[in-house]
Design goal:
The complex is a heterodimer of chains A (about 475) and B (about 950). Chain A contains 14 helices and 19 strands. By secondary structure, chain A is of the alpha/beta class. In chain A, a hairpin with a 2-residue loop joins strand 18 and strand 19. The N terminus of chain A is likely disordered. Chain B contains 41 helices and 10 strands. Chain B has about 950 residues and is an all-alpha fold. Chain B starts with 9 loop residues before the first helix and ends with a strand. Helix content of chain B is about 50%, strand content about 5%. In chain B, strand 7 and strand 8 form a beta hairpin. The longest helix of chain B has about 40 residues. Classes of the chains: A alpha/beta (about 475), B mainly alpha (about 950). Chains A and B meet through helix 5, helix 7, strand 7, helix 9 and helix 10 of A and helix 5, strand 5, helix 35, helix 36 and helix 39 of B.
Chain lengths: ~475, ~950
């Protein structure tokens, strides 16, 4: 509402206009304030009409093994037991634990009408094969977790830059002002590698930082006071602050910051109600709970977060990221049993998310992404104790996407004969970022933030291209 | 041939002739050439093609231009040209290449066979040796007597003979060992973060030796084709020295307190504006107290100031605040943010604590409190180690310690290079790049970082400027001679501190020694028994020797024993687990002994040391311009120097070694920066002071004085302040005093409608802005108002606590909680209270914070147990101090939180609000079955609720 004069604006304030309506007015007006630019979460127009409105990012910390899950490599049988090449040795984290070529202990099957080949460990995802795009030619830049997590989340291997969710909410704002725009559902047992830095807004204003929702207990830090105070008492305290603030504002006419502050306290009160409601799974049917695996111990924790993600997206949350307990996909040893454990925990809930969104008609507007920070090596890693595992492999790995304007039943790109390195239709992490922004209606070169005179962007100065082949 | 003569570009020089045969001409002419003709050669052809890149023939395209080869035959992904067109940074105009056109170029690159033998010189193998070998065969360590830093040294070889034999790869030991997989030694790969050379690197090395191991080509006589700096470039306002302007005359003489007012009023009068009336005395008291000390005035200070009716009461107040030790605690915070201060290394998940970083924090606080002149402050921080010849002193005096501590300034950026998996050469260079960013943004107000990969796009900062600055740091930060950050500490401390630690540790160490010896003595026969059992499987002949070896201390072993120790490592090594397995009956006792030892060890105090930046000694490795910032792509040799555009009025940069064993590179930089006429140093600092006092800098982009920055709103005022700053001996306190005693600063913040329409952004400063407290002001003010502030200064940081709900709090003590500047600033555990109020991550630093209004702030204020505790405490205190005097309690509460008395109306409202809360609390306590006097508790809780509302209120958080 750029033509609204300050005078009209404040007259309308006096009329008692408040809450969400107020917030929708604040953006352009506050930019002129001497406190510098004020950033907000009001919805912003994308650069072009998007397919996806929101994102659910299933982050698989640790680096899921592509040759055991997504990218069948029969040639490994042929080379089994042979020594790796110098180039593989060069890229290994634990250079003193190098083993030999290791064929997957798991069989691959064809799934769906498209006949996509996936591991026998992923029967549920297999049922959704016709709804997903599988990229087998991803490649990263670093063989260690921390830099690779930063790369996947921020476009550089260093800490301090804004994460994907921060960029997206910076570009698009929020659909629902009563909930945070960017929600993080971390595992109650343990934070991922890099901890809270994964969802920081870096040098973007902190308003774009991810907000942690807990899947057990009160969803948000300090959402409620400790000690179980009755609602009436809480309401009385809120009224008290409101009274003081209104009197304070009356003595200082013309300051939009003070209006924003009052609106902000009102928003916090509404959030108390809506956040609790959004995460209240008791309102879901038994069938839905069963679908997400809430009734089995193995899947219950991840399933809860997947179902919460759906409820948040339904309510207009822009970006939800789900983490897994620490880095369970980091299968350095005991490859067979540890991968069984990981898939047993995640396969059913992730597939349920696709199916559920589809049946609710939300899949077309919701982009689901599942990826780790890298893949793993086709050779074994030998540790003193335990059976063989695989070391990190950044040169080639797989990720899948579903909904939000990506093709179903499509496989993009390929790694070499042994699954070590992406060779065909290679997709860099920057390409992937550009593609995600594109699906949301954002042109990656134009989504910029001015910092120290530099036009910063998610893909930084790296070359990037949208993977157009994967788009509907 | 010395390393300094190494030159790159052999491939480029020879490419034209040698690659010719391999270029698929028909392929080029049918695929890429039509695209180049249509879209590229308008710039990339002719006698002086753009970027020296000519795209008319396959050879010239392969040869590349200024940024290096345009394509990598066979490797589209590594081809610069493709990168540029795919990212659409080329062509520069609106018309980009279509997907088909890009595909045509990609196809051509894919089909072009990788280059055949080009002449390979020392310049090509230098980076390979540097990356793969010099960690053990270099400056500090020369295993086997071998140094691989230069061709000459490699020819000379080590104990086993020459490392390379020109023309004879089969006889070249270096190559043989690499091919056999013996070098680098597989066992050391992880520890030293070294990887064996890749196949192309081995190939390069082999061909270099095969073709005679040619030295690097001689330095070309002509300078490289860098874009020269023009007079126009130098004429940019911020690159010209500040000139003392005349102070303008103004009409509103009565509003002038010092020249600042004249400069501001002159501009206001042009628009027929004037200052707002002066703010009320108490508003001013609160404003200037929070501004200079980060804390509101106490009720006693309010009352004393009310009573002080002398005409210069305000000026006296300002002097008192500037003399308060709280001043340094406030203003050091801004500098620490600019410098990127943190108590942890970051980068890696572990986020290792920097056990001694706080000494630098204390140095900064003390420097501010002592009003250390800014030029000296800078010199000490950039080159303190070059001011104090600590290496040749037996005991460091206090001054030496102080100067060394100051150099912590350039040791603050995130640094994960202590981890073997994060210490590669490019990652070390990232650390240096971050330090350059801190230095340039904080001290020079310039962005130099982007010149790491290419010339600055808007400012006349060239890529070589970046690498010349990097060369200044090279004598302390050498990526090829790296010391891990965890080992980069100076064992220097004040004598008293050293002695105190020694006195403390001595008895503990003695006790430890006794216990450890007793444990070892008990285990000795058991170990011998295990060993005897183990060697039964071995041939008789070695048994005795092995027993002998085991019985001999490592240092005293003969060559044979050493050999045996290595060969039978598994047999000789007997771990605690082995002992426990074999003799389970001893487990309980040894466990107890171990626990006692661990407990004792925990009591030991760490030897005091300093996190410093210091000269590594000897000749640093050469610094090369890195094309596209790529550590493998060496360009021209760089000498230490400062940015070429900054010349006007300045003495040139000159390394200045004050004593032997130091290069003087950083001292030269510090002296260059602190010349009185430096165009940036004084301007950048006074601008930041102005920004913190008035809410916005005269240059509104405080870290960017370049072309993309914001032009100064009052250029003459900025220059006057900059020159005044230098004239006053770079005294910060004098600048503060000047600013906060101006009439401008003393205005009210009320919005005047007429002025508002004439100057809606308040650029001309017709009023003071209303400002919300920043995170630290808010945190500390709540503590002070509640009577919970522990004023203890300095020392090791206060630990933080992660609550089960996720809130991160500072630990308190019986005396309360300390100011936020003293709380551990670990990157992964920022205090929640600070974080929600816009505490920026240090990545690497922050010059200007953003200011957000988000609902998590409201939730924090309303519901955090921490604020509730403060409110309850405050209420209890009010009731204790003024029992049964409810009006007095309210008055005191207003004084403590808002530094004013309540109006009669406010008191009445407050009392009725509290009364309304009492029944709610009574009900609640009833339903909770709470013990104790419920009525009394309900009264206390209701007053606490009101205190809580006051601490959460807008009036508390905002500064008029």
């Amino acid at each position: 509402m750029p033509n609204l004069s300050r005078r009209t604006f404040f007259n309308r304030m006096a009329d008692g206009l408040h809450g969400a309506a107020l917030l929708s007015l604040l953006g352009p007006d506050l930019r002129a304030s001497e406190a510098g630019k004020v950033y907000d979460l009001k919805p912003k127009k994308p650069h072009f009409t998007p397919k996806a409105k929101s994102v659910i990012h299933l982050f698989q910390n640790g680096g899921p093994s592509q040759v055991d899950l997504f990218d069948p490599k029969p040639a490994l049988l042929k080379f089994a037991g042979t020594k790796p090449s110098r180039d593989i040795v060069n890229e290994i984290e634990f250079a003193d634990q190098i083993g030999t070529m290791l064929p997957s202990p798991f069989a691959f099957r064809r799934y769906g009408k498209c006949g996509m080949e996936l591991s026998e460990l992923l029967p549920n995802l297999g049922e959704c094969a016709d709804d997903i795009t599988l990229i087998r030619s991803m490649f990263g830049e670093h063989f260690n977790h921390e830099p690779s997590l930063y790369l996947m989340h921020t476009g550089r291997t260093l800490p301090g830059r804004p994460s994907l969710g921060a960029w997206v909410t910076y570009g698009l704002g929020a659909e629902n002002q009563n909930l945070p725009a960017y929600v993080v559902l971390d595992d109650p047992k343990q934070l991922p590698v890099n901890g809270i830095q994964n969802w920081q807004s870096g040098w973007l204003p902190p308003v774009y930082q991810g907000t942690r929702f807990r899947s057990e207990g009160p969803p948000l830090l300090n959402l409620k006071p400790q000690g179980n105070l009755p609602n009436a008492l809480e309401a009385a305290q809120r009224d008290l602050i409101h009274r003081l603030d209104v009197e304070h504002r009356q003595g200082r006419p013309g300051y939009a910051e003070l209006e924003a502050r009052i609106a902000n306290y009102e928003l916090a009160a509404r959030m108390q109600v809506e956040a609790v409601d959004a995460l209240d799974l008791s309102k879901e049917s038994e069938e839905t709970k069963e679908m997400y695996g809430l009734n089995q111990e193995a899947t219950a924790s991840y399933g809860r977060r997947c179902l919460m993600a759906r409820r948040l997206v339904e309510r207009g949350v822009r970006f939800v990221e789900i983490y897994i307990e620490r880095q369970i996909w980091d299968n350095h040893s005991d490859l067979e049993s540890s991968l069984r454990y990981c898939c047993g925990k995640t396969d059913k809930p992730a597939a349920a998310l696709i199916k559920d969104l589809k049946r609710l008609g939300l899949l077309d507007s919701t982009l689901i992404i599942s990826t780790g920070e890298f893949g793993r090596m086709p050779i074994s890693q030998i540790r003193d104790n335990g059976t063989a595992g695989r070391d990190h492999g950044p040169s080639g790995f797989s990720l899948w996407m579903a909904g939000g304007g990506v093709k179903g039943g499509y496989v993009h790109g390929a790694t070499d004969e042994i699954g070590y390195k992406a060779v065909d239709k290679r997709v860099s992490v920057h390409d992937f970022h550009a593609t995600m922004l594109h699906l949301l209606g954002l042109e990656f070169r134009e989504l910029v933030y001015d910092r120290h005179g530099l036009k910063e962007r998610l893909t930084d100065q790296f070359p990037a291209r949208v993977v157009t082949e994967a788009l509907v | 041939m010395t390393l300094h003569a190494i030159r790159i570009g052999a491939a480029v020089l020879l490419a034209g002739t040698l690659w010719g045969a391999d270029v698929d001409k028909s392929g080029f002419e049918n695929s890429a050439l039509p695209v180049f003709r249509a879209k590229c050669i308008v710039c990339h052809s002719g006698a002086a093609p753009q970027g020296s890149l000519d795209l008319r023939t396959a050879q010239s395209a392969l040869k590349g231009g200024k940024s290096g080869p345009a394509i990598q035959p066979g490797a589209p992904a590594r081809s610069l040209l493709l990168e540029r067109v795919v990212s659409k940074s080329m062509p520069p105009g609106p018309e980009k290449l279509s997907e088909t056109e890009i595909a045509a170029i990609r196809g051509w690159i894919e089909r072009t066979p990788p280059m055949a033998t080009a002449a390979i010189t020392e310049a090509d193998v230098f980076p390979i040796f540097q990356m793969r070998c010099v960690v053990c065969h270099g400056k500090r360590k020369q295993e086997g007597g071998l140094d691989l830093r230069t061709r000459a040294a490699a020819l000379k070889g080590g104990q086993s003979g020459p490392a390379i034999v020109p023309g004879n790869p089969a006889e070249s030991l270096a190559l043989k060992r690499i091919l056999a997989g013996q070098m680098p030694p597989p066992k050391l790969l992880f520890e030293y973060f070294v990887r064996p050379p890749s196949s192309p690197e081995v190939d390069t090395l082999r061909r270099w030796i095969e073709t005679g191991a040619a030295p690097a080509p001689p330095e070309p006589a002509a300078a490289k084709e860098y874009k020269p700096i023009t007079e126009k470039d130098r004429s940019w306002w911020s690159f010209q020295p500040p000139k003392r302007p005349a102070v303008p005359e103004v009409r509103a003489r009565g509003q002038v307190r010092n020249p600042i007012d004249q400069f501001l009023l002159a501009r206001l009068e042009e628009k027929s504006l004037r200052y707002n009336p002066e703010a009320s005395r108490l508003v001013l008291l609160r404003r200037v107290s929070l501004d200079l000390t980060g804390l509101p005035p106490t009720p006693e200070e309010v009352i004393a100031y009310e009573r002080d009716t002398r005409p210069d009461a305000y000026e006296r107040l300002v002097d008192r605040l500037l003399e308060s030790p709280r001043y340094g605690e406030r203003w050091a915070q801004f500098w620490l943010n600019a410098a990127g201060y943190a108590d942890s290394e970051g980068i890696i998940d572990e986020d290792r604590i920097r056990h001694n970083a706080w000494r630098y924090r204390d140095y900064v606080i003390r420097a501010f409190n002592a009003d250390k002149p800014y030029d000296r402050f800078l010199v000490e921080q950039i080159a303190g180690d070059e001011l104090a010849d600590y290496k040749h002193k037996k005991e460091a005096d206090a001054e030496t310690v102080e100067k060394l501590t100051a150099t912590g300034f350039l040791r603050l950026v995130p640094d994960g290079t202590y981890s073997p998996a994060n210490g590669s050469i490019p990652e070390r260079m990232n650390v240096i790049a971050d330090e350059i960013e801190v230095l340039s943004s904080t001290v020079m107000g310039l962005t130099v970082g982007c010149a790491r990969c290419h010339d600055h796009k808007y400012d006349p900062i060239r890529q070589r400027d970046y690498y010349q600055m990097s060369a200044i740091l090279q004598s302390a930060y050498d990526p090829y001679d790296w010391v891990k950050p965890t080992e980069r500490n100076l064992d220097v401390a004040p004598v008293e501190e050293k002695q105190a630690v020694a006195r403390w540790n001595e008895p503990i160490e003695a006790a430890l020694k006794k216990k450890e010896e007793a444990l070892a003595a008990k285990a000795k026969p058991l170990r011998e028994q295990i060993l005897k059992d183990r060697i039964q499987a071995l041939p008789e002949a070695v048994r005795a020797d092995l027993l002998q070896t085991a019985a001999t201390a490592e240092k005293e072993r003969t060559a044979l024993q050493k050999y045996l120790a290595e060969k039978f490592e598994d047999i000789l090594k007997i771990t605690a687990e082995d002992l426990a397995k074999k003799f389970p009956e001893t487990v309980a006792e040894t466990g107890r002994a171990r626990k006692e030892i661990a407990e004792l060890r925990a009591k030991l105090k760490a030897k005091p040391d300093i996190r410093a930046l210091y000269e590594m000694g000897g000749e640093p490795s050469p610094v090369f311009l890195l094309r596209r910032g790529d550590a493998n792509s060496l360009g021209e040799l760089m000498r230490p120097d400062t940015p070429a555009v900054l010349r006007a009025g300045l003495k040139p940069y000159q390394p200045a070694a004050p004593f032997p064993d130091t290069t003087g590179r950083r001292l030269g930089l510090a002296k260059w920066l602190t010349q009185p006429d430096h165009p940036l140093t004084a301007r950048v600092m006074v601008n930041r002071l102005w920004m913190h006092h008035f809410g916005r800098g005269i240059v509104a982009s405080p870290s960017n004085f370049g072309r993309t920055g914001v032009a100064p709103s009052h250029p003459a005022l900025l220059d006057w302040l900059a020159t005044e700053f230098v004239r006053n001996g770079w005294s910060l306190k004098k600048m503060h005093r000047l600013m906060v005693t101006s009439t401008a600063y003393r205005q009210s913040s009320a919005i005047d409608t007429a002025a508002q329409s004439a100057d809606p952004d308040n650029t001309l400063l017709w009023r003071m802005p209303l400002r919300r407290m920043d995170a630290e002001q808010l945190h500390d003010s709540i503590l002070l108002a509640a009577g919970r502030l522990d004023p203890t200064p300095f020392g090791e940081p206060v630990a933080v606590d992660s609550k089960p709900g996720g809130e991160i709090l500072a630990k308190g003590s019986r005396s309360g909680w300390r100011r936020s500047i003293y709380v551990l600033q670990r990157r992964t555990t920022p205090m929640t209270m600070l974080e929600v109020f816009d505490l920026p991550p240090m990545s690497p630093n922050c010059i200007e914070r953003s200011n957000s209004t988000v609902s998590t702030q409201a939730l924090q204020m309303m519901n955090s147990e921490m604020i509730r505790e403060r409110a309850r405490f405050l209420a209890g205190r009010l009731m204790d101090e003024f029992p049964l005097q409810r009006e007095k309690q309210i008055e005191q509460l207003y004084l403590r939180t808002l530094a004013r008395r309540p109006t009669a109306h406010e008191t009445a409202k407050a009392l009725s609000d509290i009364d309304k809360l009492i029944p709610y609390w009574t009900d609640h306590l009833q339903s909770e079955q709470s013990a104790g006097p419920r009525q009394e508790t309900a009264r206390w809780s209701s007053l606490a609720s009101f205190c809580h509302a006051m601490l959460s209120s807008a009036e508390f958080a905002f500064i008029d």
